Amino acid sequence: MTAAIQLYAADKKIYPRAVHGWFAAWRWLLVWATQLVFYGGAWLTWNDRQAVLFDIAHRKFYLFGLVFWPQDVIYLAVLLIVCALSLFLFTAVAGRLWCGYACPQTVYTEIFLWVERRIEGDRNQRIRLDRERWHVRKLALKAAKHSAWLAIALWTGFTFVGYFTPIRDLWSNAAALAAGPWETFWILFYGFATYGNAGWMREQVCTYMCPYARFQSAMFDKDTLIITYDRERGEPRGARSSSAADRTLGDCVNCGVCVQVCPTGIDIRDGLQYQCIGCAACIDGCNQVMDRAGFARGLIRYSTQNALERNLTRAQSLARAFRPRVLVYSAVLWAVVIGGAAGLYARVPLKVDVIRDRAAIAREVEGGRIENVYRLQIMNTAEAQRQFEIRAEGLATLEIAGASRFELDATASRMVPVRLRVQSGAVPPGTHRIEFVVRTVGVEEVAVREKSVFIVR
Question: Closest by alpha carbon to 237, among 257, 252, 247?
């Protein structure tokens, strides 16, 4: 009989221990901030509508006083570039700050762990409970925990869908069990994803699924601020009865608290590892132990590789933060932000697309005139009803046949047929460039010019 070969080691369940300290407080502050924005943002109103809404059905994106259309995809591109450059910059300066404090995986894992601790207890109690055989109390605790997890997950999925379907209508329909099939599917899908990722998979998402853990090393250098263990001060490590019991040992008492509080279960004393998400829980845990042992804080701390190797002061480390790659990232980031902001400020709340009617390229009509037919897709991106006027320029005797004024409701679009005519003989045969001018009546600065061609046969 051939022996079975295991390709992967079995994962050991991680039971993170609760920790308190300066970095834990910052982490929870960002948990509250991000969730207030996420859960509360969907319920804000602006001009009698939802303030933030991706209205896919009508192809509009409402962001407070701004209304974006598919033609505004350039702003989405700018936003993505800003996010990418910000990630590069923050990682080059201070490592995985995003992962440790604001990533949704970290945030919801913190929330789910808090629920778990409130119901089942801290680390040792949870380990002991999982080792026990099934009984009524264990079943009740597990049921309560998973019920709370499911409630948070479903509310998260509901809120997420509420950014794409007006959340008040969604709430009314969901309460009446009348939500549409797609809304129901996505609420359950994102609820299940939250429940699975934050409740069950946790550190495995960061370790195996997130690509950032794999390419972060390309963004680090020896002056990147990372979580470090001061080996020179801490080694040789070992337990002792008091702070002065054995000065042949380093300051590390080998208590293992830094491993117990780590949400990914690594030992930071082995050096920086790709599983480290930079949450600084080990710093808070070690500082608590150092306080009890009577040693100085900072055995585990934020520092740089150069600072440890060269014994640099904090001022010297800070000065090295302003290195060429950081300055380049900052300059490019600010250039993109300023350019995007300027474009947004100068954005005209009117969009026009000109489409030639291919069924009637050029024809002769009454009076010997030559006529071309166009269709103008006009979008009023302002949140007020407006009247628009169409003009055509570029050729002698060029005129619009029919009405040239019309009204459009707020954030509405309309396909307007336009017939342009010129006197026969006034323009030689061929293709001639013209311009359509669409302006807002009463608001002269809101006007758009679009080029097209007029064909004479």
Answer: 252
Contact by Cβ (8 Å): 23, 279: yes
Identify whether 413 is part of a domain. Answer: yes
Residue where the block lists tokens 């030639």 = 356
Amino acid at 418: V
Nearest residue to 213 via CA among 160, 273, 270, 271? 273
Sign of CA dihedral 300, 303, 309, 313: negative
| Helix or strand (DSSP H, E) at 377 | strand 370-380
Q: How far is CA 383 from CA 46, 60, 66, 379, in A?
A: 11, 12, 9, 11
User: What does the block give as tokens for 274?
Assistant: 């790709």
Model confidence over 194-252: pLDDT tens digits?
Answer: 999 999 999 899 888 888 877 777 888 888 989 999 999 998 988 876 545 566 888 99
Domain count, the chain: 2
Which contacts (CB < 8 Å, 24+ apart) does range 321-324 have?
Answer: 321/93, 321/223, 321/225, 323/221, 323/223
- What is the separation, in whole angstroms, between the first and last Cα of the chain? 88
The number of angstroms, rounded, from the C-alpha of 86 to the middle of its chain's C-alpha atoms is 12
CATH, residue 438: 2.60.40.10
Residue 387 placed within a domain: yes
pTM: 0.84
Shared domain check, 368 and 271:
no
**Dist. CA 387–CA 375, nearest whole Å:** 18
Distance CA 36, CA 241 (A): 46
Domain that holds residue 278: 221-312
Q: What is the band of 288 on the pLDDT scale with cuts at 50, 70, 90?
A: very high
Residue 281 carries which side chain, given as an amino acid letter? A
Residue 188, token pair as written in the block: 């359950």
Tell me, what DSSP letter sits at residue 208?
I
